[in-house]
Design goal:
The chain has 11 helices and 8 strands. It has about 270 residues and is of the alpha/beta class. It has 2 domains: about 160 residues, 3-Layer(aba) Sandwich (Rossmann fold); about 100 residues, ProC C-terminal domain-like (ProC C-terminal domain-like fold). Catalyzes the reduction of 1-pyrroline-5-carboxylate (PCA) to L-proline. It is an enzyme of class 1 (oxidoreductase).
């Protein structure tokens, strides 16, 4: 991988920010010393400093020295953060990446300058193991900058470029979606206990089966129904179980949950 030559500032070093920083270093995208991480409290930065990252509690100072700035705070904290850094934003130099749910590129530019290039990115918590599904979108960033942001997030998983009006939908399907699939795995393991397995055995079996199902689709590049057809024989046990789940709203409840999460995701940020 071609090394990034500039400096990256990650403002708000929670799970997403720290995982991205570690992914950039692990993949060879950047050296730890090129990446600055900030938090409101210095207490949580000691370990990161020991790993070679530049750490600070001064967002403005860090932004002033950066080329790419990652806004990795909660939507409710974003306006305060943007107020802190507004005076040091350099339109010619800075590219901003926002991972805040429900906040548009235009919302961010309205706070720090209409000509600033902003890219939105929506990773999920599997970023911690380099398996994120990250969606990226922009309404004004150059193709070169979008490609750079894509390259950054490809160090921690897969990336899809989408239209910005689909970002809250991406939040529901990919970010919230981690929880939905985890709950399905948990339910499967509970079913396993009911039919005779110990809890730890049932969970291991459910997890590996779910992983196998996902990998089948990724590696075979097939459709779920194709793989389902291979498991469902006439009058068999699989189709009986599937149909019982469907009669009880399995697919319908998942679809409805995703739709509600998308509505909620769009209402997390207050523009004022």
């Amino acid at each position: 991988m071609n090394k990034f030559k500039g400096r990256v500032a990650i403002l708000g070093s929670g799970n997403i920010g720290v995982s991205l920083a570690k992914g950039l270093v692990k993949s060879g995208y950047a050296e730890a010393g090129q990446i600055s991480l900030t938090r409101r409290s210095a207490a949580g930065l000691t370990d990161l400093a020991e790993q070679g990252f530049a750490v600070s509690t001064d967002n403005a100072a860090v932004v002033a020295n950066a080329d790419i700035v990652v806004l990795a705070v909660l939507p409710q904290q974003l306006n305060n953060l943007l107020a802190q850094i507004g005076a040091v934003v350099d339109v010619q130099k800075h590219v901003f990446i926002s991972v805040a749910s429900g906040v548009s590129c235009a919302d961010i530019r309205s706070k720090i300058g209409e000509d600033v290039q902003v890219v939105r990115a929506m990773p999920n918590t599997a970023i911690a193991i380099g398996q994120s599904m990250t969606c990226v979108a922009t309404d004004n960033a150059s193709q070169q900058n979008v490609e750079e942001v894509t390259r950054m997030f490809e160090t921690v998983g897969s990336v899809v470029k989408i239209n910005e009006d689909l970002m809250t939908s991406a939040t529901a399907l990919c970010a919230c979606g981690i929880a939905f699939f985890l709950r399905a795995i948990r339910a499967a393991s509970q079913g396993g206990v009911e039919i005779g397995f110990h809890a730890d055995e049932a969970l291991k079996m459910a997890v590996q089966t779910a992983k196998g199902a996902a990998d089948l689709l990724l590696l075979m590049q097939s459709h779920p129904e194709q793989e389902i057809d291979k498991v469902t024989s006439p009058k068999g046990c699989t189709i009986a179980g599937l149909n019982e789940m469907e009669h009880n709203g399995f697919s319908s409840s998942l679809i409805k949950g995703i739709k509600l999460s998308a509505i909620k995701a769009g209402a997390l940020y207050t523009k004022e």
